[in-house]
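Notes from hallway chat w/ T.B., transcribed later so I don't forget. T.B. wanted the structure written out for a chain they're using in a teaching module, and asked if we could keep both sequence and structure tokens in one place. Agreed to drop them here.
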Amino acid sequence: MFLDNIVEINKVAVRKEVFETKFVCDLNKCKGACCTLESQYGAPLLKDEIKIIENLLPDILPYISEKHKEEIETNGFWEEKEGNLLIRSLNNKDCVFARFENGIAKCGIEKAYFDNKINFQKPISCHLFPIRISNFGGDILRFEKFKECHPAIENGSNLNVTVANFCKDSLTRLYGKDWFDKLSEIPRS
């Protein structure tokens, strides 16, 4: 069902920008800015993700710096602000799970996952980025625009890949393959 610029798939509202905007991360240009965006709010967390990460923490900690480990040991890895569960950041900037490889910020949780140390890739909000979920009686997916992601828009245009296709794995993880297939069938303007 179309309402202006929104499509509904199995009670999930998707703004058209998600399947029309071109986007593919270019880490060599953005340097992993999504893990280091300056803000008083870290990445959103789901309540069940907190318990999962707590249980996996011993296997994740070797993948992050001493400074980040100290922050987690002192203050924990998550916080609640204005009723929102969030990953803690250092100095309102670096995610506590950020690790740096050749000057590029990457996720320590995801590195442990790809090294087969844990079975959890990373919080769904991080996996979905640049898609953000708002909830107004149901999920509403939108494309979160950041100036740091301008190289990704250029790269996506060059490769002709949309935000939705770039986020195929995370969208499938969250909503399932059938849901993603329905999203893929929507005609583009």
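Follow-up for T.B.: The chain has a mean pLDDT of 92. Might be a good example for the class.
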